[in-house]
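Thread: sanity check for a docking pose with adenosine-5'-triphosphate

Original post by kr_44:
Hi all, I'm comparing my docking run against an independent structure prediction. Below are the sequence and the ligand SMILES. Could someone generate the full complex and paste the structure tokens? I mainly care about where the ligand ends up relative to the chain.
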Amino acid sequence: MADTATTTDTRVPTVIADGVHVIYKVHGAGARKGGATAALSRVFSRRPSPGMKEVHAVKGVTFTAHKGEAIGLIGSNGSGKSTLLAAIAGLQPVARGRIYSHGQPSLLGVNAALMNDLTGERNVVLGGLAMGMSKQQIRERYQGIVDFSGINEKDDFISLPMRTYSSGMGARLRFSIAAAKDHDVLMIDEALATGDAAFQRRSQARIEELREHAGTVFLVSHSINTVRETCDRAIWLEAGVLRMDGPSAEVCDAYEAFTAGR
Ligand SMILES: Nc1ncnc2c1ncn2[C@@H]1O[C@H](COP(=O)(O)OP(=O)(O)OP(=O)(O)O)[C@@H](O)[C@H]1O
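Reply from moderator J.T.:
Ran it for you. Here is the predicted complex with adenosine-5'-triphosphate included:
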């Protein structure tokens, strides 16, 4: 396993996770049991509701990410990958531990909020503004974003509302908007899995460029091959626990051996 915290390390840290725990509180079945008096008494005694369930999604994860790294997050379904990214982006509170980051990490998920009733064109503008780009910068990069997404390859889809797009087209446009800006820390959740081969090649090249501009890229993917090809480092989570952190080839091999044995 790579030792990323040696005292002679001259690399510049961008994200430090220090013993991070994330716990979801789920108000499930039975939450209404006991009536109003019992609920009020629980409020005063600070006892949790009987229907409240806790999901301990991330358990004491520690790592340091550096400028210029592309880090793949791998692990079985429900192992806490998306939750960890949301915590790094500041979208999910941390129950224990700390996260330090350089700049504002941008989370690009397949579910990233674009407006379905607006055209792709309006979404490019709004998405750019939301990322802090000026109108002038958006105007300059608009055509590049549309070309990168490949949305207009078959027809003039960019002037249609996003609800008319396939899920792959939507994901490609989201990636293209986010990738138009140089991010200190860019986190991508499964976006690459949705594009076709040509789009994946463009995305990989763009991730390479983002790294060269000294940013850090995190990529959550179920495709081990994508992580091998795109990332130099991988972090493997299993049931919320960090199982392995090191060069992506080694971590992917170990993960594949683990999944083959199950
Ligand atoms: N909003 C939520 N409320 C309650 N529990 C949640 C919530 N989101 C995720 N979880 C739970 O937290 C755990 C980690 O989920 P998470 O989505 O982070 O895993 P993942 O590794 O990204 O999964 P996948 O590979 O299936 O996308 C799972 O047990 C999941 O059921």
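The helical segments are 35-45, 81-88, 120-130, 135-149, 167-179, 197-212, 224-230, 248-260. Hope that helps with the comparison, let us know if your pose agrees.
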